[in-house]
Design brief:
Layout: H1 22-29, H2 49-61, E1 63-68, H3 74-89, E2 93-97, H4 101-111, E3 116-118, E4 129-133, E5 147-151, H5 162-170, E6 176-181, H6 190-199, H7 204-211, E7 212-213, E8 223-224, H8 228-239, E9 240-243, E10 261-268, H9 285-309, E11 315-319, H10 322-331, E12 335-337, H11 344-355, E13 361-365, H12 366-369, E14 380-383, H13 390-398, E15 409-416, H14 420-441, H15 444-452, E16 465-469, E17 472-476, H16 479-483, E18 491-496, H17 519-536, E19 537-548, E20 550-552, H18 554-557, E21 561-563, H19 565-576, E22 579-586, H20 590-597, H21 604-610, E23 620-626, H22 644-651, E24 654-655, H23 681-691, E25 697-700, H24 707-714, E26 718-723, H25 726-747
Parallel strand pairs: 1-6, 1-9, 2-4, 2-5, 3-4, 5-6, 10-15, 11-13, 11-14, 12-13, 14-15, 17-26, 18-19, 18-25, 22-24, 25-26
Antiparallel strand pairs: 7-8, 16-17, 19-23, 20-21, 22-23
Helix pairs in contact: 2-3, 5-6, 6-7, 9-10, 17-19, 23-24, 24-25
Amino acid sequence: MEGDEGKVWIVSKACIGEEMTYSDFLQSKRIVDAPTGFDVKQLNPALFQWQQDITRWALKRGRAALFQDCGTGKTFEQLEWANAVCKHTGGNVLILAPLAVSYQTKHEGEKFGIPVTVCKDQFEVQSGINVANYEKLQHFQPKEFTGVVLDESSILKSYTGKIRTQIIDSFNQTPFRLACTATPAPNDYMELGNHAEFLGVMSRVEMLATFFTHDGGETSKWRLKGHAETEFWKWLASWAIYIRKPSDLGYPDDDFELPAKIETLHQIEGFAAEGYLFPMPAVTLEEQRKVKRNSLSARVRACADLVNSKCFGYWVVWAELNDEANALEKAIRGAVQVTGSESAASKEEKLIQFSRGQFRVLVSKASIAGFGMNWQHCNQMALVGLSHSYEDLYQAVRRCWRFGQKNPVDVHLFMVDGEQAILENLKRKEAEAINMAESLKEHVAELNKINIKQLKRETDTYKTRMESEGDWALELGDSIEVLKSYSDQTFDYSIFSPPFASLYTYSNSERDMGNCTNYNTFAEHFAFLVKELFRVLKSGRLLSFHCMNLPTTKQNHGFIGVQDFRGDLIRAFQKEGFIYHSEVCIWKDPVTAMQRTKSIGLLYKQLRKDSNLSRQGIPDYLVTMRKPGENAEPITKTHDSFPVGLWQRYASPVWFDINPSDTIQKIREEKDERHICPLQLGVIERAVELWTNPNDLVLSPFAGIGSEGYQSILLGRRFLGIELKEAYFIQACKNLRQAAREVAQRNRGLFDGEPIEAGDRAMSAVPGQD
């Protein structure tokens, strides 16, 4: 399929005339990105062993990301990667790099015997490895390259930027892709999504929908879903390497130890924002800008005095504003400024001159010169204007404080009292970056075993077991596989609430029917269960499912509306052979729903703003299906047990009197995204009373915490439940035992010496099993 090289296309066996097995389907649900590269045995011996292993892994992947700290040899690795791709394919590779890094890359290639051509457009491209600045991308024809390398790929951070979109669109058909940066998403996860999209692993939108959620109305603030956290890091580790030093991957650090970094804060007092008599913390961005302007001369003078007093050694002085940079260049002896208004050639020449030690003090902005350059010859820097960008700060410091630096690095921060909020924000972002680094590092060991050293992966085992007592049995496991062990026509009735596609809401297992990337995958998964339910249900008997239609959202579906989940379930059962028997609508209070969900369709302010999006609340339904055939055991009722008035209530097409709080209890584990909401006991009671005989065997394939079983036992029925999640299984066992105790207590005579045991009407240990 053109344009989809490297993607894993999962083709249903049914499409090619062969029925897909359940095992095949579970395998297809796993979120994977298949390697598209090739094996390489011999690499440049000048690479350290761990660098060779990383490069070898990246070549085998074909499309990979190297998130390695500054000075760990990314340039050498990407050159060796590109060289191998050229040799293997016979094609050319383009390396895109920040300003002035192109010549630095060429120089690195010369050191290790790898030819590199610096070019400005497609006409200058030579056979093999070519390197150009990002600004020149429009002058190249991406289809002419077999491979592409993004040096300092954090340029992808701006997910709305033109360059980000241009890069992803330009190379979406390039077979071999490598992204290299030291700072993947220090503040949020958007950059990781952009990297995944560039590599063709998953789009940013898909990543957010799969692993993330946002709470409340702030749609820009995403967080990892509880059960998705582990799976997200595993997914990331399957296509990206992250290391800060070799020991993160289990190798000796040797010379890769950073020198000391000495931060000195020069706090200048006495500056107030306009309109204030005394210095006050600048809270808003406008207030912070005013404080910066008012204190510019004092900060520049303090910095210049410090740099001028240090006659020896090289300095990098970072500014935020143009006026700051201009004033610093004038105030510091021998300073050379690199400005944004200069031509690319002029910027490049000055940066290279500083790299060679041709002048002592460089003045610039982090956004201009803060990426990609190696300045280990310099160990002194000053930041005269702080911004809220942690990445700019990190990259600016890392130009000098990197592996290969032999001296302690002095970092001087010049700020006034009112800028404290900026510093606190940077510290917060730094803590978040460290936390993310530690989270990712937790999975490096696993990555080390699986990918780098090709060791066997340890996998979680699928747990099964059964508990039974008297009239009930509960099985821990996958309901589809568990039901396969039961005979045809075993159960008299089934009642349950099916899940729906909602990734990682209650578990991260591919066996979890609700844990699906999209609605179609859920439907395919549910169809396996419907087939088993049809087989194990007795002929002529009924099955009831409790559901509601599902509201859609813009971020997940692209539109605001309602999805006909109830109708889709009915059609799924009809497709297997069930007959649509009946349904009842269960009323729900729209005010309660509005307060809980904040759905735009129920908000009164939306009615006043534009009622075109206003809608009614979404009720619950109890839908009942019938298996064709004669019912061998008629379900009879007497006038005493089922008077006319009761039947009239049950026969109503709308039940207004169901108490939504009439449940056993709500339960939520730490990582659950929502409480498990048990089916109301009143609904279960009516259905079981209406459609079963005493001692009938009731089935729930989604037992949850045992609500259907609890009520069935109280009504004198037997029950078999199946639950995938162990925590719910344990709670369900407790609830079923409680129901048995209640029955025993109820049956105990006033003057009886001993209560009747719940097991006196016991079913077989595993009823209906083959």
